[in-house]
From TrEMBL:
Subcellular localization(s) per the UniProt record: Cytoplasm, Cytoskeleton
Gene this chain is encoded by: PROCH
Family indicated by similarity: Belongs to the profilin family.
Molecular function per GO: actin monomer binding
Keywords: Actin-binding, Cytoplasm, Cytoskeleton
Job description of the protein: Binds to actin and affects the structure of the cytoskeleton. At high concentrations, profilin prevents the polymerization of actin, whereas it enhances it at low concentrations.
SUPFAM superfamilies the UniProt entry points to: Profilin (actin-binding protein)
Organism encoding this protein: Helianthus annuus (Common sunflower)
Gene Ontology CC: cell cortex; cytoskeleton
Name of the protein: Profilin
Length: 150
């Protein structure tokens, strides 16, 4: 499945009649892997600040989370895994995976919990897939070593 399909089919899906306003999957280095058509252009320093907050939780709280020039007040999340932000009746959820961050932006009538569920479930799925790939690679290596003559 392409990264764009993850955005189109999973992040921008309908949940109880609502959709995210915008979504993206962005590499830890700031490279946009895929995004919805209306995702705001992000600045490299905005992605760097988000990654820094994952590495040192709490660094965004004093200044806010900036994304596409919009400032979100940082609210509760999961240190090192999820950052959530609020602005008026909308907000943002950012989930960290092994190589990327998944971003969902929402406005009313979508509820914050709906956005959290969409973004975090995809992130958890991708984390599980990465772990499965890693475990499969280790298994193959171990099997190869067992077969090799000493």
């Amino acid at each position: 499945m392409s990264w764009q399909a993850y955005v189109d089919d999973h992040l921008m899906c309908e949940i109880e009649g609502n959709h995210l306003t915008a979504a993206a999957i962005i590499g830890h280095d700031g490279t946009v892997w895929a995004q919805s058509a209306n995702f705001p252009p992000v600045k490299p320093e905005e992605i760097t600040a988000i990654i820094n907050d994952f590495n040192e939780p709490g660094t965004l709280a004093p200044t806010g989370l900036h994304l596409g020039g919009t400032k979100y007040m940082v609210i509760q999340g999961e240190a090192g895994a999820v950052i959530r932000g609020k602005k008026g009746a909308g907000g943002v959820t950012v989930k960290k995976t092994g190589m990327a961050i998944i971003i969902g932006i929402y406005d009313e009538p979508m509820a914050p919990g709906q956005c959290n569920m969409i973004v975090e479930r995809l992130g958890d799925y991708l984390l599980d897939q990465g772990n499965l790939i890693w475990c499969d690679s280790i298994s193959r290596l171990v099997n190869l070593l067992v077969v090799l003559p000493s």
